[in-house]
Write a structure and sequence with these properties.
Structural class: alpha/beta
Largest sheet: 6 strands, parallel
Bound molecules: 3-methylbut-3-enyl trihydrogen diphosphate, magnesium ion
CATH topology: Undecaprenyl pyrophosphate synthetase
CATH superfamily: Decaprenyl diphosphate synthase-like
Distance between the termini: 20 Å
Strand order of the largest sheet: 3-4-2-1-5-6
Number of domains: 1
Helix content: 40-55%
Number of helices: 8
Oligomer: single chain
Length: 231
């Protein structure tokens, strides 16, 4: 039997924390806490499955529109989650990349994210990218600004992609979104140009190893053509 094709880069849009909590008569924050709790496990499952890069959309530049209390609560979760798992990343030789902008983020969180990138930069196995204060359009604008500041022109896809937050990483092969929503919501727009999309009804706090393996399995059955005809 043919071995299942494993996507090199998987991008996850975790969605449904709020609905998970409401379904249990709990405040929305309880859903975010439950969603954060499974996070280290998801990283482990992705590594075991042979994925090379896992990108997770944690907080978008549009999420600032949520009520202040929820935004503050989410920032607290990120702060704790990052600090708690930082040592583990180092121990397990995981490379960390932050996708997003520092604009509006607490200095303490920006410092932690930068330190994590710096201290794991020489790790070359699995790479974990967290998108915090990220949107695809914002990333493209920042890349264009960076290039024009040097006075050079954008001559090729390569010259643009080298200035994206994801520079040097392979394109996204598979996007997974939970909670039944079927859209990309501004996540890794250019990097997902040829990605396969997998949508599951499962709410993020209920995401499991089986869910991830199902997504990978479905990916393995898709025929990717990249614009060519190859039946
Ligand atoms: C996703 O869950 C988590 C973040 C955006 C941080 P939601 O908060 O969007 O959950 P729903 O969509 O309201 O259920
Ligand atoms: Mg949502």
């Amino acid at each position: 039997m043919e071995k299942t094709k494993i996507p090199r880069h998987v991008a996850i849009i975790p969605d449904g924390n709020g609905r998970w909590a409401i379904g249990r008569n709990l405040p929305r924050m309880a859903g975010h806490r439950a969603g954060a709790k499974i996070f280290p496990d998801v990283v482990g499952w992705a590594r075991e499955a042979g994925i090379e890069v896992l990108s997770v959309f944690c907080f978008s530049t549009e999420n600032w529109k949520r009520p202040d209390g929820e935004v503050r609560g989410l920032m607290r979760i990120f702060d704790v989650l990052l600090r708690r798992n930082f040592r583990r990343l180092l121990r397990e030789k995981i490379r960390f990349r932050w996708l997003g902008s520092a604009d509006g983020l607490q200095r303490r969180i920006v410092e932690t994210l930068r330190a994590m990138e710096l201290e794991t930069a020489s790790n070359c196995g699995f790479c974990l990218c967290l998108a915090i204060n990220y949107s695809g359009r914002d990333e493209i604008l920042r890349a264009v600004e960076k290039i024009s500041a040097t006075g050079s022109a954008i001559e090729s896809w390569q010259s643009l992609s080298q200035n994206l937050d994801s520079s040097g990483l392979p394109d996204v092969d598979l996007v997974v979104r939970t909670s039944g929503e079927r859209r990309l919501s501004n996540f890794l727009l250019l990097q997902s140009a040829y990605a396969e999309l997998h949508f599951t009804e499962c709410l993020w706090p209920d995401f499991s190893r089986e869910e991830l393996l199902r997504a990978i399995d479905e990916y393995g059955q898709r025929k990717r053509r990249f614009g060519a005809i190859n039946h």
